[in-house]
Amino acid sequence: MEFGTLKNYIDGEWVESQSSELLDVTNPATGEVIAKVPLSTAEEVNQAVAAAKAAFWEWRETPAVIRARYMFRLKARMEECFEDLARIVVKEHGKIIDEARGEVRRAIENVDMAAGIPSLMMGYNAEDIAEGIDEEAILQPIGVFFCVAPFNFPAMVPSWFLPTAVACGNTYIVKPSEQCPISQNFMFELLDDLDFPPGVVNLVNGAKGVVDVLLSHPDVAGVSFVGSTPVGKYIYATAAAHGKRAQCQAGAKNCLVVMPDADLDRTVAALLTSAFGTAGQRCLAGALVVAVGDIYEPLKAKLVEAAAAIKVGNGLDEGVQMGPVVSLKAKQRILGYIDKGIEQGAELLLDGRNVVVEGHPNGYFVGPTIFDKVTPDMVIAREEIFGPVLGILQVGGFDEALDIIRGLPFGNAASIFTASGKWAREFKYRVPAGNIGINLGIAAPIATFPFGGKGDSFFGDLHGQGMDGVNFFTDRKVVITRWF
C-alpha cells in the first residue's frame, strides 16, 4: 500500500482518526489498494468545527494583504510539487498524466486569483446621499465554511473554494472525496508547510455522515459542493433548512451542436476531447452530438473512425490517450447504460465494453462508446452517464437542436460548432446553459470567471470561482454616517 491510512488535519495537526470504518482507495488502472481512508466520527467533525471557529476572529482581523501572502507561498509550493501532485491524481483517479497536469494548473490559477484579495475585497461608497450623510458598503468575512469535493477533479475543485474563502478571512474545512482523497491529503501537507494559524485550514475524511454533521452544525456558515444532481439537491435543501449559505454545482447532460458549415476536422478533434477526455468523467463532458442537416453522415464517419483509434490504458504510460473510469462500481453503472441504450433501440456504432489493456487485467477500463439513432426520450439521452459514452442525434435545423437542449433538465454547458456569427450569437443568446462554447468542446471558465450552471445543474445564487466566490464568502455591511 503506497499511501497507508490517511489522517485528518485538525487545528494545525495531523490526527489519526478514531473511526473503525475504513474504505479502500484503489488505483483504477490496476485495481490495487493504494490507501485506506477513514470515515471520521461526529466527534472528529465537531473538533474541526471548534478549531475553525476558535481561529476565525484572529484570522479575520489579519490584514488582507498578509492573508494574500499565504496564497503566494502556497502557489510557490504547488509549483515546486507540481509533478508529484499530478501523478497522485493519476494514481487515485485514473486520468492520463497530461489531464492531471492540466487539473493541477487550474488549481494553481485559483490560488493566483485568491492572492489578489486585497483589491477584490474592496467595498464601495457614496458621499452626500442626503445632506451631510455618507454611505459605504464593507465586505466582511463570515465564519466557518466547508466544501464537499468530487472524485473527478480531486486536486482542482477544492481550490475553487478554500483559497478564496481563506483569503477573504474565513476559516475552512475540506471534506475530500472518499474515492479520491489522496491529493487533498498531499495538498494539506503543503498547507501545513505554510504555518497557517492553527484552525484556519482543516481536513476531515469521510462520507455522508461527515457531511450531515457539518450541514447541521450551528457554527458552520456555508457549504460549497460539486457532484451529482441528487446529492446537490439534498445538500442545498439541508443547508437552507439550517440557515446556511450553499453553492451546489451539480450534474449535466451537455449537447454539442454541429452546424452544416462547421470545420469538420477541427470539430471532430474537439468532440473527441470533450466526450472522452478523463473517460467522460467531468461535468463539462460532451454527452450528445446534435448534427444539423447534411453534416450528419460525414461527421458520424469521421467521429467513429477517430474515436476507435484512441489508445486506452494506464494514465502514467506514454502514448495513452484515455484512462480507466474511477471504480468497478462506476464501470458497472456505465455498462448498464450501454445495455439500456441497445435495449431502447439506439444503434451501437462503437462498443467500448470489451476493451483490453495489456498488463492491466484488473483495471476499470471502458473504451470510447458511440451510439447513433438516439432519440430525446431515451434514457441515454436524458440521464447523466458520467463515462465515455456519446450519443448522436440528427436534426433538420437550428431551432430543432435548441429544442433538444431545452428539453433536458440540466443546464451546465452547451457548445456550437459553426462558421456563422449569426448562429453563434443566437446560440449564446437563447440556450439555457451556464457555460457556452463557440467552436469549443469544453466550455471551462478560468479562475476569474464564475463556473456557470442552470436548471438541475446548479442550486444556489452565487457560483464557484471569480467574484461570485468572493461574494459568497463575504457579506456586505452597509454603514450610513452623519457627523455633527
Question: Can you give me a brief rundown of this structure?
Answer:
The protein has 16 helices and 22 strands. It is globular and about 75 Å long.
The biggest sheet amounts to: 7 strands, mixed
Mean pLDDT over the residues = 97
Spatial strand arrangement across the major sheet: 14-15-16-13-12-18-19
Radius of gyration: 23 Å
Helix content: 25-40%
* Percentage of residues in strands: 15-25%
Lay out the secondary structure.
Blueprint: E1 8-10, E2 13-15, E3 22-26, E4 33-38, H1 42-61, H2 64-80, H3 82-93, H4 97-114, H5 117-120, E5 124-130, E6 133-141, E7 144-148, H6 157-167, E8 171-175, H7 182-193, E9 201-203, H8 208-216, E10 220-226, H9 229-241, E11 245-249, E12 254-258, H10 264-276, E13 286-292, H11 296-308, H12 328-343, E14 347-350, E15 369-372, H13 379-382, E16 389-395, H14 398-406, E17 410-411, E18 413-417, H15 421-430, E19 435-438, E20 454-455, E21 458-459, H16 466-472, E22 474-482
Parallel strand pairs: 7-8, 7-10, 8-9, 10-11, 12-13, 12-18, 13-16, 15-16, 18-19
Antiparallel strand pairs: 1-2, 3-4, 5-6, 6-22, 11-21, 14-15, 17-20
Helix pairs in contact: 1-8, 2-4, 3-4, 3-7, 4-6, 10-11
